[in-house]
Amino acid sequence: MPSTTVHLLRHGQVANPDRLVYGRLPNYHLTELGARMAEAAAAELAARVGGGSRIVHLVSSPLLRARETAAPVARELDLPVHPDERIIEPRNHFEGLHVDGPELLKPRHWPHLLNPLRPSWGEPYRHQVARMAEAVLDAGRTAVERGGDGAEAVLVSHQLPIWLTRRSAEGRPLPHDPRRRRCNLASLTSLVFDDLGAGRPPRIVYSEPAARFYPGVNQLPGS
């Protein structure tokens, strides 16, 4: 069986001065700093190609912030961007709201807070893992078809689906504390498949090409 690596790239910082849950809402651009984060991730991937990696396939969530993050990667690696709905941000009942204590006390939200382990306020965790896993395996197969054994793919996605994919690959429970996610802005969660198609979980390699931009940046869980 062939080997491959699929890199899950989280988008850069998003302009969100009102600190809303923006989920799948349109027109949420990267900030200037977020664009620099995306450039840093693209430069890291280009350096890996310069060192011998064969990244031959690039996929993006259709949401604007992901497409803007994918753009410098496409430029640096000279690859087209393929949109894939399967790696989109999950739907969320709280889209468009600033979620704080007073907001959560409103009775209209209570039915959506009954089961945080599912979670009841949005797309179930296991559904997110299923669609992400399908997209990851398809991207790995496409990379191998285009570049041979060891070829790699990049998928530009969002914090929660990336983090759930990692937890699933590591055999950990999907319910978790959002404050403890290790999936920073413009980070790379790389899934290394030594034997694609054998059914074994990938090894995880995590890196933060944009870490120098993190000081002073308030990272909201999700997005």
TrEMBL record:
GO cellular component: cytoplasm
SUPFAM superfamilies listed in its UniProt record: Phosphoglycerate mutase-like
A GO molecular function held by the record: phosphatase activity
Alphabetical list of CDD domains matching this protein: HP_PGM_like
Gene3D superfamilies attached to this UniProt entry: Phosphoglycerate mutase-like
Xref: SMART domains: PGAM (SM00855)
Family matches, as PANTHER family: BROAD-SPECIFICITY PHOSPHATASE YOR283W-RELATED (PTHR48100), PHOSPHOGLYCERATE MUTASE (PTHR48100:SF51)
The protein's name in its UniProt record: Histidine phosphatase family protein
Organism: Kocuria dechangensis
